[in-house]
Amino acid sequence: QGKFTLLRDSRTDGSFLVHHFLSFYLRAGCKVCFVALLQSFSHYSIVAQKLGVSLAAAKEQGQLVFLEGLKSCLDLLFGEEEQPGQPSPLQFLSCDLRALFDFVRLSLGAGHGGKGPVLLVDDLSVLLSLGAAPVAVLDFIHYCRVCVCCQLQGNVVVLVHSNEDSEDEENELVVNSLCHHSDLILWAEGLATGFCKDVHGQIKIIKRLSLRQAEQDLVQIYQYKIQDRNVTFFARGLSAAVL
Predict the structure, then answer these.
(1) Please, where are the H alpha helices in the chain?
(2) Which of 72, 103, 150, 220 has its CA 20 to 30 A from that of 96?
(3) At residue 189, what are phi and psi to the nearest 5 degrees?
(4) What angle do CA 203, 238, 224 make, to 5 degrees?
(5) Residue ranges per domain, the chain?
(6) Across the strands, what pairs with 221?
(7) CA dist list (Å): 71 to 37, 48, 80, 226
(8) Whole-angstrom Cα Rg for the chain
(9) 39, 122 in Cβ contact below 8 A?
(10) Architecture (CATH level 2) of domain 3-235
């Protein structure tokens, strides 16, 4: 509890990590606020069903608070309000990210079974594409960490897209800043050698021991293959393509 986990992907799609954490925390009985900016509710629901979790049931029971970012953007841009009189969580399109933080704070304020709440964001890079400033995005994450990790003793899990060769300086600024503040980094990367049917990419697990102790970060690297209902991990050079 009280940890900030950064999911980072480069030259590949790291969304399988988001689906893992979503199903993991729901099965654990934690209350989850899912800020979904990339896909629709039906998309996440179909994947969750394959993993043995019903998002619709969790939503009805109050365990899952789901913000469908794509729909909220359209409602805000075209002047349609689902609940008249209440500010949209994506009000930052015309001002700042305070409304989105208030949405998170109010959603996780009431506990669920005495377990630490969880904030899950997929993905943070979309906020930059919608016009939010890098400083505003970093402030939003900082306040979420203080509220969820420190005050509520919960966890924050955030996905960001990254490309070291990209000319998007704002996105790289946000990614690098978040890396310095993370307790754990799961970095999914595409293979430098290109496509392989037996190896879909490699994941670098970085445990930030240097945050609280005078020790070097612990780094582990595995390769993985995404299957229909799970993901297989193995050491480099031990895939079916090699053996």
Answers:
(1) 15-27, 41-50, 55-60, 69-77, 98-108, 125-129, 134-144, 169-181
(2) 150
(3) -130, 145
(4) 30
(5) 3-235
(6) 204
(7) 9, 20, 10, 29
(8) 18
(9) yes
(10) 3-Layer(aba) Sandwich (3.40)
**Closest among 93, 90, 117 to 106, alpha carbons compared:** 117
| CB-CB neighbours of 206 under 10 Å | 19
Handedness of CA 219, 25, 16, 173 (dihedral sign): negative
Type of residue found at 85: G
pLDDT tens digits along 131-172: 888 999 999 999 999 999 999 999 999 999 987 767 788 999
Distance CA 124, CA 12 (A): 16
Residues facing 64 on adjacent strands: 32
Dihedral, CA of residue 22, residue 26, residue 30 and residue 35, to nearest 10: 40
Mean pLDDT (the chain, rounded): 86
In whole angstroms, what is the distance from residue 118 CA to residue 120 CA? Answer: 6
**Global confidence as pTM:** 0.87
Q: How far apart are CA 79 and CA 72, in angstroms?
A: 10
Residue 42 has pLDDT above 70, yes or no: yes
β-bridge mates for residue 4, sequence order: 156
% of the chain with per-residue pLDDT over 90 = 56
Tell me the two tokens of residue 241: 């393509």
